[in-house]
Amino acid sequence: MAITDARPSTAPPPDPLPRRTRRWRYRLSVALHEPTLLIGIVLTVILLYLVIAPLVAVLSDAARVQFGDQPKTGQQAGELTSYYLWRVFRSQVSSIVFWHPLLNTLIVAVGVTALALLLGGLSAFLLTRTDIAGRKWLSTALVVPYMLPSWTFALAWLALFKNERSGGQVGILEARGISTPNWLAYGAVPIIICLGMHYFPFVLLLFGNALRRLDSQLEDSARILGARRSTVLGRITLPLMLPSLSSSTLLVFGRILGTFGTPYILGLPVDFNLLSTSLFASVRNHEPGITAVIATVIVVIGVAVVVADARLLREQRRFVTVGGKGAMNRIIELGRWRWVAGGVALSIFVFSVAVPVLTLALSTVTTTPGVFSADNFTLKYWLAKSLPDAPGFPHGLLRGTELLDAAWNSLRIVGLAALICGLVGLLIGYVVVRSDGSRVATTLRQVSFLPYLVPGIAFAAAFLSLFAVRRGPVPALYGSITLLVIVLAVTHLPYASRSGISAMTQLGREPEEAAQITGAGWLTRVRTVVIPIQRGSLVTGIVLPFISGIKELSIVIMLTTTGTQLLTTLSINLIDFAYDQMANAVVLVIALVAFLATYLTQRLTRTSLASGLGG
Q1: What's the confidence (pLDDT) of residue 89?
Q2: Share of the chain above pLDDT 70, in %
Q3: 459-485 in b/e burial notation, b at 16+ Cβ within 10 A?
Q4: SS3 state of residue 377
Q5: Which burial class, exposed, middle or buried, applies to 404 when counting CB atoms under 10 A from its CB (0-12, 13-18, 19+)?
Q6: Residue 528 backbone dihedrals phi, psi, to 5 degrees
Q7: pLDDT for the residue numbered 205
Q8: What's the whole-number mean pLDDT along residues 149-172?
Q9: Which of 97-111, 291-305, 593-607 has the weakest average pLDDT?
């Protein structure tokens, strides 16, 4: 007789859920508790759409018949076509649309780069390797031109050299009886000078930091062996500076591709077009296919420049001169020449900052340019209730609501974009560092840097192509504040993301792990541990995009409408109406906001743009 156990079974009941479902439920629980990977995936998907999709849309527009062009192409809208390629590269108008602007762009880029290298390299050498008089003050002062909107110099140039060709009031020289030829007032020469004055601080910072790190004992050794100063400079110093010089050259060259304000102001009166202004003209003429082709060319050139710069950075390993024993940076004593050198550096500051700003300021308070009698000074361009000679803008700048509306739009749009940029940049840094080595981290790092490869005006054209019409669930955003916020945040994201990655690399896991032991969740750890520790990086990631965005023109010029007017586009619109004094006044307001934001950033973060120059 079999004996059976009457005790109830203690085995757990079978789980009705399939094994795959339980696995995914477990993964979801882990993701919610530690959502780093999930956040990385979400950010990657969003950035792929906001960075890759606009570029794909531009390529699509270049290869498909656009609505309204059916009679020109003989094809239906949406069909594949080579018409726009033929129109830009091979047609009778291709020289006007593309080839002449391309040649002009190359001429201007080479000229600007040469001038920026000359001024920036000379300034960097004086500030880092000599005891030049006023060294500390000049280290900060010579960076100021980069804080100003790039077309500040163009407006100041017009205020001095403008002749009767472009209409409106003539410049100061012409008003005083000094005739200014067209080649001096407009075209390649003034564009090169004005952009060179704006971009030389870029070279100053890059080249100055490299010079500061160069071990002067190498030069001393050569001199001990009998080498002359010229030999040391040509055989040791300059070859070791080659990577920095090459990088500065390529980056300045690349930035010229997307510059719009200065070529538009100084090139339009004599039909001197660059690729950027030709692109803008095709947008104004409602030619999306041609716009797409030109934008693609600018993108390709921009990517090629940055890729070449990246290869040069890898080559810098062959030029390493600072080892574990440290380096010596010997200051050259100039003796009585230190005051002469200080005067040279001061003259660069005077011509790049003092003269342009003073010229613009004087133009806003004088009726006739160049006449400085008491009865010629006026505040009507600022305060007048009525300006009969300006029907398109019939009152002083501070009387109406145009300036206040543009300022409010600039502050809220750029401010919101900068806030998003800083927070997303810190999140990207967190995901990349905490998930280092994963595919998500690698993809996120690369995608967040892609906007740097695309010149600003080409990126604006790409966004215009993507968001001009409804695409699936995404509505048409053209003319909205949302589009401006998105494009400004995305284009400035490379700087914020690199700042976030650098900051998070220096933050170990220990502070978070300590909070996690006490039971703090991910959001609590980020709010109470990560953000307080990385406060300086977060502030920098917000304020620096704000400074760049507040004086941005190339990115927003094609995306603003009457209801979304910014300070930069207001200034350009006033120039189009030949209201030069009020346009100059708006630029002064922009410069003041940018300077104050820069000053506050340096005070909050206790840093200086010239910190690497010995200032």
Answers
A1: 95
A2: 82
A3: bbbbbbbbbbeeeeeeeebbbbbebbb
A4: strand
A5: exposed
A6: -100, -15
A7: 80
A8: 86
A9: 593-607
Helical segments of 130-178, H only: 135-141, 152-161, 172-175
HSE-up of 485 (CA within 13 Å, CB side)? 13
Q: Is the pLDDT of residue 324 over 60?
A: no
- DSSP calls for 208-244: HHHHHHS-THHHHHHHHTT--HHHHIIIIIHHHHHHH
The reported pTM is 0.83
> What are the beta bridge partners of residue 234?
none
Q: Which of 453, 475, 485 is nearest to 564 (CA)?
A: 485
SS3 at position 64? strand
SS3 assignment, position 130 = strand
What domains lie within the chain, and their CATH numbers?
A: 392-610 (1.10.3720.10)
Amino acid, res. 28: L
pLDDT value at residue 302: 83
Q: Is the pLDDT of residue 357 over 70?
A: yes
Q: In this structure, what DSSP letter does residue 374 have?
A: G
CB neighbours of residue 239 within 10 Å: 12
Q: Tens digits of per-residue pLDDT, 372-409?
A: 888 889 998 898 888 877 667 788 888 888 899 999 99
Cβ atoms of 512 and 525 within 8 Å: the answer is: yes
Q: Where are the alpha helices (DSSP H) in 258-287?
A: 261-267, 275-284
What b/e sequence results for 195-230 when a residue is b if at least 16 CB atoms lie within 10 Å of its CB, and e otherwise?
bbbbbbbbbbbbbbebbbebbbeebeebeeeebeee
Q: What average pLDDT does range 303-312 have in this prediction?
A: 75
The one-character DSSP state at 474 is B
pLDDT of amino acid 323 = 43
Give the count of beta carbons closer than 10 Å to the beta carbon of residue 238: 12
Residues 264 and 280 sit within 8 Å (Cβ to Cβ)? yes
Q: How many residues does the chain have?
A: 615
CA 332 – CA 566 distance, rounded (Å): 48
CA contacts within 13 A on the Cβ side of 560:
24
The mean-pLDDT minimum among 99-108, 187-196, 579-588 falls in 579-588
Q: What is the Cα–Cα distance from 200 to 145, expressed in whole angstroms? A: 8
Place of tokens 């739009």: 409
Between the alpha carbon of residue 365 and those of residues 163, 167, 368, 382, the distances in Å are 20, 20, 9, 8
Cα gap 597→441, rounded to integer Å: 32
More confident residue, 139 or 107: 107
Q: Each residue of 562-575: pLDDT tens digit?
A: 888 999 999 999 88
Query: In 10 A of CB 358, how many CB atoms?
Result: 12
Q: Rounded to whole angstroms, how far apart are CA atoms 374 and 378?
A: 9
